[in-house]
Structures
1.
Amino acid sequence: MSDSDLIRHLASEGRVVTAGGCVIFLEREEFIEVLKRQEEPLVVCSLKGTLKNRHTYLTSYRGMLFAHRAKSPIELEGYDLINAQEIRFGGRRLR
């Protein structure tokens, strides 16, 4: 089953919500600064690649979504982390 077939199937069961809006990509320091502004930040992390690892981080702040992509991981001790297999937004993978 392709990704689009799976999404259609899950949507027919009411198990998929499609989001609209934007994702704001930040540099590492800016992303960490957004995390520091929050009382209990939640960060979704995803790792892709076999030879060239690509770390993707996503958090929300004041109703906006902020992301950071990096070749090396960010040290995020003390934050609530969710390790995701993949991060998608509006049906598309964040690359």
2.
Amino acid sequence: MKTMKIMMLLVVLGATMTATAQKYGKTPEDSVDCVTNLYLYKEAFNSKNYLEAYEPWKEVLRTCPGNHKNTYIRGETIMKAQYNATKDPVEREQLIQELMHMYDLRIQYFGEAAEITAKKGYDCEQLRGIDGLNEYYGYYSEAMRLGGDKVKPVYIENYFDATIRYVLRGLGDTVMIIDNYDIATDALDKIAARTTDSAALAEVRQVINNVEAKFSPFASCEELVNIYTKKFEATPDDLNLLKKITTILRKKGCTKTDLFFAATEKLHAMEPTPQTAYLMGQMCYNKDQFSKAVGYLNEAVEGMDDNSDKYKVYILMGLSYASNNSYSSARSAYLRAAEMQPTKGEPYRLIAQLYASSHRSIDDGLGGRTAYWAAVDKANKAKAIDPSEENVSAANKLINAYSSSYPSQSDAFMENLIDGQTYRVPGWIGETTIVRTRK
């Protein structure tokens, strides 16, 4: 029966030989061998007789390596079964080399160089163990160079694990860990950005968390600054280095260091982007340079398209204006933030705080306490548009604090004000509100 099936396949092959010569072999003899062995190895493979499939599968790989990707996918199972079937170290070494060669052929005929090179690293690590560190670290590194965001997240974590082992065995220094952390997290961030499936995204985020946890022991701000200050001073105009410094220090929360400020300032001067302008705005704000912060933030927001990014810029702009006692400008910035994210209560809470904190600037005959009415109005608006637990809790705290600072009923009466009356808060606030007093 097997012979009959093979003969039938050969007849079909003969009819299509010219069109599919490359697929089934370069010569007629190779094509005959290819079809015969394709049938033999598939029969064995489908019956899970992987050891029996090995020899005909090898012939397929020899005579028609471009036949089908499944030759390589099944080949992993066949090769590993062969490996597990022997304990002889010489045979095992030969099989590992055959497996690596199989992956090289797969890349040659079917591409996916980054992913398959990473797979080489993974299999080498599994089969050789720690003794194969130099080899599998090399494969992982090459895969990341070919396109880290094109490999499975688990391989990226393996790459970073291998980096740490490499350094701990004295084969590299801490700089290698820091540099490869940057490579790994950049690739993972790109994968996460384009992943829409919730389960897959959760996997990517878990790997990101794992890499962050493994990096932490090597990543104190002091150590990062010590390492990169020397590099920065040696080549202050190295654009790639500037990007690396600012990215790593930002990810590790080292944004208040002098190095981060200097590197970001240099980067913005050499290659200004909305992101570098925003970073400069943040740093100037942290240094109490509020006017400079506003300048950078205006530059940042002009170049941004995404409303969520603009929202963050306008919030920081409002805080900068408020810190400079530019209350009207601060309110305008918060209102622009509200336009960018209409369901967020934060901008209105910030306006409430702005009104309350500036109450002494209001000449109302009541020590500026009418500002608290407008403040509570804004806190209530925050609650109305954003029912999230965090926002409601924060807004309620403001309402409780500010309502306790309302003018007393007797003081209000002296200004001809009674509860429930419409009232326009004077000064820069200029809000129409309702009179409320402490009883």
3.
Amino acid sequence: MKANIQTDHGEVVIDTDVIAKYAGAVAVECFGVVGMATTNVMEGITSLLKKENLSQGISVNVADGKLCLDFHIIVAYGVSISAVSENLIENVRYKVETFTGIPVDKVNIYVEGVRLID
């Protein structure tokens, strides 16, 4: 899938994988987010993704010129999930809109697990 931006000088096309990688990098910088998660639906197993695979824990959809991002995250034990989610949503919305120039309509957070951090 691609996101298109019309400018006075032509069209800019951004692959949604690029947006997902950027959004994943923003997400792991947020306090309380241990990392992105992938879920094996068949086996019911959730695993923490390595930094090079962050985009697999995010889906990006483009509709009516706006972005919708779904994050599957693992949070740190002992943090407020609502506070982490609000912080993540605000940071991602601001940084992705600044990076792409495309408005972010929705950021959905799916907490897939909790981890102790050393």
4.
Amino acid sequence: MRLVETGLTLAAAARSLGMSDQTLFNWVKAHRQGKLTGADSKPVSAEQMEISRLRAELTRVKMERDILEKATAYFAKASS
């Protein structure tokens, strides 16, 4: 945030931080709207981190299942 506010272009600031332009753009936008919380915000508990990880894993597994169901239907139809 400070790099962009001091006059550095968004692309140059993102490149110097090793992050994507879009991510930094989203952070700058959220900061300007007052929606960005800093490091002083409430820390995330271990349980919340585990819940987030499990939700992401569940989403991935559901997607894999759907792909396998479609592949099974395709090959069953092709063999008959």
